[in-house]
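Preliminary data (for renewal application), zinc ion complex.
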Amino acid sequence: MKNILPLFVFIDACGWEIIRNDPFANRIAPHRKRLKSVFGYSSACVPSILSGGWPDEHRNWCYFVYDPGKSPFQSLRPLRWLPQAVTGRRIFRRWLSRFVRVQLKFRGYFDLYNIPFKHISLFDFTEKKSPLKPGGMNRGPNIFDFLELRAIPYHVSNPAKSEPENLRAVTADIRSERIDFAFVYLPELDGLLHRVGNQSPDVPSKLRQYEQWIEQLTAAAREHYKEVRLYVFSDHGMANCDELLDLKSRIEELDAQMGRDYAVVYDSTMARFWFFNDHAREEIVESLRGVSQGRILPDAELKQLRAYFPDRYFGELIFLVKEGVLIVPSHMGERPIRAMHGYHPADQQSYAALLTNQPDIPCDIEAIPDIFRLMTRDAELARERNRRPWADSDCLDFDAENPAGAIGEGPKSELKPEPS
Ligand SMILES: [Zn+2]
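Predicted structure:
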């Protein structure tokens, strides 16, 4: 029996508004807090949680950027001659994405989405490594670097496996008492919400299933750890899309031509532009100012959102739509979906949630990157408390702060290993 297990359960898209009026996890994690999300998609939110940094620090923001010199997709250009009936199909794109991911040795999530093959060699993909692995950030360390550096044994879900497979794997690691930290990733609610929207009865059903799984997991952990510090949290919420915006057609009607005068990535809620001449910039800015469903984000606001990049790596101009508007067709999808995230973090459905069995959520835990501090704090605590005195020569080392070697006094006594 070990002393402490920090158990972090990440439920993708389980936003504050999704659980606000639902008794989700009340029995096992009764203390709740609304958390501010990070501007961007999961490509920005997940790395922020895992590193404690903001996009302007870790530079994991949006997946595709204009960077023809570094584009790894040159070999896909001939596919532009294939009929749209083939290349526009999700099943073809998914198959090709898997093939490309292996060929290009990308380690993280990869999807070609709906980027047209005609323009694909203009773009680079920014998440070549997996943020769920040590060394997985574009810049700086993440929680797994932290754990490895301190030799804290941990479990992390494998995103290539299903939710039940990952739950079986973490349960086995808990039962073996091999680990001092667990990070479980449950992605299915996100996909469900995209398909059915945030008002569907399928959503509470999925929450009940998660509740049951987390209860079982916590019960298994309690058999092997005296204290289980459970944190269930999310990265963002999900807004229903009730209005479609064909921004692409509107921009393509202008004189400026994609690839010659400008480049653009149409995300589902944002359009990010790079300009090659002043005429294109003026024409596009004027056209965007006439689109009532969204607005150009000023630099000052991007700075405030921690998504301002002085080198304009992710776009010279960021156009963001209002909550509930979906850009379609976009480079993310040809057809509409029921719900989306990636709106302004101050929009109602954007907020994330933290639920825990710890009664004292520190007041400086306000936004999703702050979860990192909970993880490092609890991982350190588990390392100290799970240490077996007879197996660890550190206990005999000279302690500069405690030269007399006194134990059992002051705050240090809290960290003293208990007999197991
Ligand atoms: Zn999503």
